[in-house]
Structure formats: C-alpha cells, structure tokens
Amino acid sequence: MRQAGRYLPEYRALRNKHGFMDMCKTPELAVEVTLQPVRRFELDAAIIFSDILLPLEPMGIEVAFAEGDGPAIRTPIRTKADVDRLRPIAPEDDMSFLMEALRATRSALAGKVPLIGFSGAPFTLASYAIEGGGSKNFVLAKSMMLAEPAIFQRLMEALTDMVVGYLNAQVASGAQALQVFDSWVGALSAQDYASFVLPHMKRLFAQVNHSVPVIHFGVGAFHLLPLLAEAGGDVIGVDWRTPLDEAWRIIGGTRAIQGNLDPVDLFAPPSAVEARVTDVLSRAAGRPGHIFNLGHGVLPGTPPEAVALVVDTVHDRSRRA
Fold first, then answer.
1. Alpha-helix residue ranges (DSSP H) falling in 80-211
2. Is 68 helix (H, G, I), strand (E, B) or coil?
3. Domains and CATH numbers, the chain
C-alpha cells in the first residue's frame, strides 16, 4: 500500500529535485522510487510507483498535482458532451513511461520479490473526474448517477474499457500481480453499488488477465464486502475498520484476503505496534491466503523504523506459526 512516499527520507530527497508528475513519467525515477522500500525493508513484494489518475490524461481529462492540495481535474466531466469527447487509450503508447518502468523494475528486482501493477477502479476514477478532485460527500458524482444515469453509465463503460486494457498492458510489461483500488466506493450504499457499479466491476474482473493474481480493494467498504466479493478478484483487500476474521467470514473462507493494520498504528510505541500486528495475525489464524498489509496507504510522517518493526514482526510471527 503506497510503499514509497513522504515517509522515506530517500524519497523526499528525490522529491526535492523533481516534481511529482516528472517522477511518475520518468521511468528511471519511477524505478528508483519503486525499489527504495524494497532495499530498506524485507518486503515480500514491490508495487510500481505511479498514480491512479495518470491514465485519465490520454483519455482527454487534464490532471494537475498542486503541492499540498492533492490532484485536481482541470477538465471535469459534467455533461454528455464531456463523456462523448473521451478517447480510448492505447496503453503501450499513451502510458509508455509506465510500461518501460515496469519492464526495468522487473529486471532490477531479478526475481527477489514479485512486482505489483495497479489501477484505480472505474467508480473512483469517475468520482475524481466528475468532482474535479477529491470530495467528502460526492455531491456531483452522486447527482449525475441519480439524475443522469445514462450519462453516468456511459462514463463508467468508458472507464472500465480503459482500466481493463491498462491492467492487461501492465501484465504484458512485467507486472506479476495487479491491484484495483476503489478508494471512494465506501461513499455508496449497497443498493447504489449493486445498481451503478457492480455490473462494470464484474465485466472488469471477467476481462482482466488472470494469468496473475488480481486484488480488489475498497476503502470504507465493510457494508459492501459481499458485493465486492461478488464483483470479482482473487484477493479481497479490506481496510482497518473491520476485524480481519469478520471480513474473511463475510467474503468466504476460500477467497484470499489482504489487510488490515490501521496505518495510524505505526505512530504508536513499539510494544503497541507489535500487539496490533499480532492481533491481525491471530485473526488470520494461520489460514492460507492471508496477505498482511496495512488497511490503506502509509501515512506521511510515519517513522521508517515502525515500518521495519511491522515487517519484522510479521515475518517472525509467521515463522513461528
């Protein structure tokens, strides 16, 4: 979950010299940032450095990253004409910098750990595109969904087409697992998810390349877990709001699960960090199919030594089990 970032001093050193978009779009820099946490910690996988909004650009949606303000959509989607002007993308060409970074990172890892590629999910991407950035209440996105359902569905179809092609291109470029991030899906009721999102997610997971494992992760989505499991994914990621054993019971014990330490726990004293890690592992109870992870991304200001403690504790407890 967002392994590199503002919490690593080596990342900040690079960030002081380069803009965020430049780092994403310069393969050598993206490779370096991807490898930084793997060098520092005994992690079991690497996740490519990128951003979920980048493939919106070749579709015709202008994205900007303002320091301290987060991403902003300069050409938001509000009308049928806005949806009609969206272009399909050719990932190998339009996202060539990412594909090159994947190939170079896979080579640099030399089999040490697998490499994960990722994409935002259609609803999360649609929310950004409609709202013009992040949102607390998603008034514009939900209003389009309810007042102009045909326009909303056309947008979701276009984004689903893009995500499928984008993820499959990542596999062709060396990704050994995929993760689909639905960061805003927790804002939806189960009824609205079933009506407006589930059909698109089912199509996404039916068409994505399953020669590699695919992780399906939603934030704040406890009430949606049965629907997320129905939508698809070899692994269901869960955030920290739900005990792991309860989440696993809901999605079904035969499905693999990823999660779910609260990222804020890494700011606690070492004894408390160890206790929280142990609690997550005890809820997994040694069953196969658990990928230990945070319940969302590493927060800015997280002490790197706390990340190391989590990794070492997981490995130590797992070896004993």
1. 80-84, 91-94, 96-109, 122-131, 139-147, 149-172, 190-192, 198-207
2. coil
3. 9-237 (3.20.20.210)
> What's this model's pTM, rounded to 2 decimal places?
0.96
Q: How far apart are CA 168 and CA 270, in angstroms?
A: 41
**Three-state DSSP class for 290?**
strand
Task: Name which of 149, 163, 171 is nearest 231 in CA terms.
Answer: 163
- Burial of 273-283, coded b for 16+ CB within 10 Å and e otherwise, reads bbebbeebbeb
pLDDT band at residue 68 under the 50/70/90 scheme? low
Judge if the upstream peptide bond of residue 209 is cis by omega within 30 degrees of 0.
Answer: no
184: which 2 tokens? 């805003």
Q: How many CA atoms lie within 13 A of 246 on its CB side?
A: 8
Residue 287's φ and ψ, nearest 5 degrees, are -70, 140
List, by residue number, the catalytic residues. Answer: 2, 6, 15, 51, 128
End-to-end CA distance of the chain: 25
